[in-house]
């Protein structure tokens, strides 16, 4: 019922109020959520302190505050993205850096990768306008009402969403045909072969997919971010670097490690408050599971809160 209320009542009401009012209300709501001290806030503080050794308590708290403010801005932006980022208007809202390079690398097939930084949904919409189309690998929400909202967000004519479970069957034909595929880089692998990298103070077990696809289909891996600017609903789409498998040169694991290092530099070097620090890593999830096990073995059983985000698949 909560999801139905949000989608059927709150979202249309916000649409009627307009972006400025929605933007204001969403930021206020996000600040109130932060004041409730949810698990994500504590997790974010721990990750920030780990990534920025020597940062003061005040600095960590400032970044946590910025995190929640940017989350509020994200949800306001999500309600208006398709309406504002139309064929004739999207350039008013998105400044594209190195557009010629993006077109060059995507001319005969390309893998685009980004992080939970700024607004990845706006990145997808802008890239769709540039490359016409872009294919986006998404984790489809299980809840039917939220799944409907997600389909609506990605129903732009230049966006082709691919469910993660279908990616292995669909992506090869796209790359063979010279298409461009966008995916989030932080997803972790629970079991099987993985590339272990240090990323923003955490040890991640990354999928080797980026390196494998580059080797199998001889395509570049382009690292992009969509940073939110100070002016409401204004963004900067950046191409930071490209990697490509070369026989006798960079191997699959080096490509993955290079991508993650580039994303880390982009996040820490521009506006770390825009990163979604509350995302739970595989290691922190394991530690939480062990801690929960110890609690359950005590005098009474308690219900353990589930994480707001799940990144392991």
Tell me the layout of helices and strands.
Blueprint: H1 2-17, H2 19-35, H3 39-51, H4 57-84, E1 94-96, H5 99-105, E2 110-114, H6 120-131, E3 134-138, H7 144-153, E4 159-163, H8 167-176, E5 180-184, E6 195-199, E7 202-206, H9 209-217, E8 221-228, E9 235-243, H10 252-270, H11 282-296
Parallel strand pairs: 1-9, 2-5, 2-8, 3-4, 3-5
Antiparallel strand pairs: 6-7, 8-9
Helix pairs in contact: 2-4, 3-4, 9-10
What does it look like?
The chain is of the alpha/beta class and 313 residues long. It contains 11 helices and 9 strands. It has helices at residues 2-17, 19-35, 39-51, 57-84, 99-105, 120-131, 144-153, 167-176, 209-217, 252-270, 282-296; strands spanning 94-96, 110-114, 134-138, 159-163, 180-184, 195-199, 202-206, 221-228, 235-243. The chain has a 7-stranded mixed beta sheet, sandwiched between helices. Strand 6 and strand 7 (202-206) form a beta hairpin. Helix 2 packs antiparallel against helix 4. The longest helix has 28 residues, at 57-84. The chain starts with a helix and ends in a 17-residue tail after the last helix. Mean pLDDT is 86; it is low at 290-313.
